[in-house]
Amino acid sequence: MPYVTISTVRGIFDVAQKQALLERVTDLIVEIEGQGNPDFRRNVWVKIEEGEPASWSLGGMIPTPDMIAGTFGALDAGGRRLAKAKV
């Protein structure tokens, strides 16, 4: 029974992105380890762990909300991504 843990900075993925990631990783494990057997899917555990930005380091620097916003889009006070302005 495989267990997959994905660690990321809180606020990088929205709910729909998390769902897509969970499904696609599961599909990959079924394809490779389960040899394509659809019944193997029920044995696959996938978990996304989110940590606060201050708990991470990128190149020795703690990513600030501004760094994350510049790369992934702005976050609101709850850590949710705000819609990017369309130009």
Walk me through this protein's architecture.
It is a single chain. The chain is α+β, with helices and mostly antiparallel strands. Helix content is 30%, strand content 16%. It contains 2 helices and 2 strands. A two-stranded parallel sheet has the order 1-2. α1 (15-32) links the parallel β1 and β2 (45-51). The N and C termini lie far apart (47 Å). This is Tautomerase family protein. Keywords: Isomerase. Belongs to the 4-oxalocrotonate tautomerase family.
Give the secondary structure arrangement, pairings included.
Elements: E1 3-9, H1 15-32, E2 45-51, H2 65-72
Parallel strand pairs: 1-2
Keywords: Isomerase
Protein name: Tautomerase family protein
Pfam families: Tautomerase
**Global structural class:** alpha+beta
- Between the first and last Cα atoms, what is the distance in angstroms? 47 Å
What is the helix content? Answer: 25-40%
- Round the Cα radius of gyration to an integer and report it: 16 Å
Integer average pLDDT: 84
Instruction: Determine the strand fraction and express it as a percent band.
Output: 15-25%
Basic shape: elongated
Largest sheet: 2 strands, parallel
* Low confidence ranges: none
In short:
This is Tautomerase family protein. It comes from Bradyrhizobium brasilense. Helix 1 links the parallel strand 1 and strand 2 (45-51).
Please describe the structure with a list of short key phrases separated by commas or semicolons.
2 strands, single chain, isomerase, 4-OT-like_dom, Tautomerase family protein, 87 residues, elongated, Tautomerase/MIF_sf, alpha+beta, two-stranded parallel ribbon
